[in-house]
Amino acid sequence: MLTKRIIPCLDIKNGRTVKGVNFVDLRDAGDPVELADLYSKAGADELVFLDISATEERRKTLADLVLRVAEKVNIPFTVGGGITSVEDVDVLLQNGADKVSVNSSAVKKPQLINELAAKFGSQCITVAIDAKQIKGEWIVHLVGGKVPTQLNLFDWAKEVEQRGAGEILFTSMDNDGTKDGFANEALAKLSDELNIPIIASGGAGNISHFVDTFNKGKADAALAASVFHFKEIEIKDLKTELRDHNIPVRL
């Protein structure tokens, strides 16, 4: 049985780690390189860095950050934010990233997923999907959750898989930062309908929420930010508890 992964997420704005609630009210959470080093040593399985304010001219800034992180950590890490081309990905991978995450650019140009998978391999390509419930339907949102689309979460996730994505990072905007638990019903449906790994994101508040998302949500990995950044949950304690619940983890 494949082990379940615990993934701290570092949202990056202007070179700093930030965290908000429901995608707004951001506050500083520390230096991303220092946090990456701490998480690597603390037993995190992977890291995710998302430049939430990325623009074309700031690609060099993110590439420099990737290089600094790569020099510190010995676990896989994914980088996302403002990636729009094969060239963007090439720079990030050359600087030490293991995977990239695309979101808005994939919706605007779905063929980008095919191009990236063909060039770098599906194992390098994560598609992030931010969605919230509107009138009972999960609707995909873009630009850090600010712009609603006409896309249904599950339809888009299936298309993403068909186009060659290696995994999906699903963030429930309704749950994000609330610490009330993950969107396990939607996660379980994604897991049932797709064959690629699903990373749960949005809503972690305590250790039981992680237990639930692996059992009820059928997630392959769980991503969280503030509970790790502000020392509310220690990764070692989390993994010990997961193991006690017969959930396979790397200790």
In sequence order, what are the helices and strands, one letter per element?
EEEHEHEHEHHEEEHEHEHEHH
CATH superfamily: Aldolase class I
The tally of strands reads 12
- Remind me, CATH topology? TIM Barrel
Radius of gyration in whole Å, from Cα?
Answer: 16 Å
Work out the count of structural domains. 1
CATH class placement: Alpha Beta
User: Mean pLDDT across all residues, rounded?
Assistant: 91
State the shape: globular
Would you kindly provide a written description of the structure presented here, covering whatever features stand out?
The chain is of the alpha/beta class and 251 residues long. The protein has one domain (5-244): TIM Barrel. Helices cover 36% and strands 28% of the residues. It is built from 10 helices and 12 strands. The chain has an 8-stranded parallel barrel with strand order 1-4-5-6-7-10-11-12, surrounded by 7 helices. Strand 5 (77-80), helix 3 and strand 6 (99-102) form a beta-alpha-beta unit. The radius of gyration is 16 Å and the shape is globular. The chain starts with a strand and ends in a 7-residue tail after the last helix. The mean pLDDT is 91.
